Amino acid sequence: MATAAPPSAAAQAAMTLAAIAATAATPRPSGEALADQSTRVARGITLQLADPSLATGGTWVLSWVGLSPDNANMAYLAVNTDGSNTFAVVIRGTDANVTDLLEDLGVGTVVPFTAVGTPPGPVSVAKGAMEAFTEVVTMTSAGVTLVQALTTALRQAPSNPTVHVIGHSLGGAIATMVAPYLRTFTWPDGTPQFSLYTFAAPTAGGTDFATYVNSLKWQANERYYNAYDLVPQAWNNLDEARTWYPDPPGPAANEDVKAVIGAIAGLPGPNVYAQPGDDMRLNGTYGPPGSYDPSVVKKSVQDFMGQVAFQHANSTYLRLLYAPDVDAGPVVTGVSPSTGAPGTQVVISVTGSGFDQYTGVDFGTVPCSQVAIAVLPTGIRISTPAPQGVGVVPVRVTTGLGTSPAVPFGQFAYGGPAPVVVTGIGPDTGESGTSVTITGVNFGSTATVHFGDKASKHVKVSPPDTIVATAPEQGIGVGLGKTKTVNVTVLSNGYSSPAGPSNEFVYEK
């Protein structure tokens, strides 16, 4: 039976190591060789492992890092220099969205897990999990595999070492396979003590697999999960998510959400899955400040999956374990000017960490050759001439900690007009006929407004940043059927404003 897990120093450090594995997971939009990305990953991991403010205490040192040829999987080996004779094999979670993660596990087909030799009985794992496991244990860095790197590290260590195998999300599922696999080897000075820590992990295999893993002798075998995270419910308890999220604050699952969950839950077919490890439930309440993302609480598929992403995030798990968060990667908050010709001097406002002489800027898929970084009291400012380009492109920044996502306020339009963005609406609930004020940027005098698929017939535009529109009769909206939550979209100067939580309107009737 699941129990509320008290935060332990070991779990805090393990989750911190897992969060650090997400470093630089996204390649530069302009492209970079696998070796260059591996170097950037190593630089970012090294920077964070040395941070004494984290739960890892600044005593861990990177020993090896491997990246699969398609960047789908990454793992690293770290050594604790505090005298504890402890090592950590850390496996990165998915860099995709939650739905893609669940679909990509290939749970409709199971295969024998023969990498551990011949267990007492058949042991089956998902075909997709087996493929990810194979990538992790065969990828190399300078021709060295994970097992070879660990062998070298243990050969240089005192006797009786401890090896922690750790992962968050898909990394946790793979960790449950890598840990028993590592136990099959003959190591220098005998067999180390092994422990297994997973966080937010979906299930990798069937009941026979879980029984086999649990039958092995572990220093620790702990599975930590957020009770309101969809991913660790896969693949044996997804139906529980149909009752999420308590309303208020929501987002309570509507029929569209329940249909999506049902479709995901059907992916395993006849295969029965089970989770290995001691269940360590991290929470039992939902609704207090900090326990949810207040920007995604409306009844829609978009908000439900947005809340799932928040509940699944590394930062959420660190908070639930009362551990400091790791440094954030870059996020673009503004581009000025947002339109111009190649060569236009552009100032990019950025938040985050990891800015150094290696920081890169890309306009779409084109890199900038001249980048100047200024650290001001108001934040980070990056200046660069716009490179050659055409059309409307995302402006993204890459540091040793990661690549910024494409965001509405991070666009540049070659030759204009400037991109249109909605920043908020008020009120965001009401009936047909409700007067709604829409704020944003670059609204032209002839802008039109849509609530879902229905045009507002009464629109008053005050360029460039305000529109007052009357909510029309409710239409089909978005999703799998008629929904009360719709996106308010402004069409102006050839642009359709991007959809997002800030422009959702809920029909009360």
Description:
- The strands form seven sheets. The protein has an eight-stranded mixed beta sheet with strand order 1-12-10-8-7-4-3-2, sandwiched between helices.
- The chain folds into three domains: 3-233 and 276-291 and 311-320, Alpha/Beta hydrolase fold, catalytic domain (Rossmann fold, 3-Layer(aba) Sandwich), CATH 3.40.50.1820; 331-414, Immunoglobulin-like; 421-507, Immunoglobulins (Immunoglobulin-like), CATH 2.60.40.10.
- By secondary structure, it is an alpha+beta fold.
- Helix 1 runs antiparallel to helix 10 and helix 4 (127-138) packs across helix 6.
- It starts with a strand and ends with a strand.
Task: Give the strand order of the largest sheet, numbering strands 1, 2, ... along the chain.
Answer: 1-12-10-8-7-4-3-2
Query: Remind me, CATH topology of the largest domain?
Result: Rossmann fold
Poorly predicted runs: 477-481
How would you characterize the largest beta sheet? 8 strands, mixed
Beta percentage is 25-35%
Please report the number of helical segments.
Answer: 10
Output the CATH class name of the largest domain: Alpha Beta
> Whole-number radius of gyration?
25 Å
Structural class: alpha+beta
Any idea how many domains? Answer: 3
**CATH architecture group name of the largest domain:** 3-Layer(aba) Sandwich
Number of strands: 32
Let me know the average pLDDT: 92
Principal-axes geometry comes out as globular
The CATH superfamily of the largest domain is Alpha/Beta hydrolase fold, catalytic domain
As a percent range, the share of helical residues equals 10-25%
Task: Give the termini distance in whole angstroms.
Answer: 42 Å
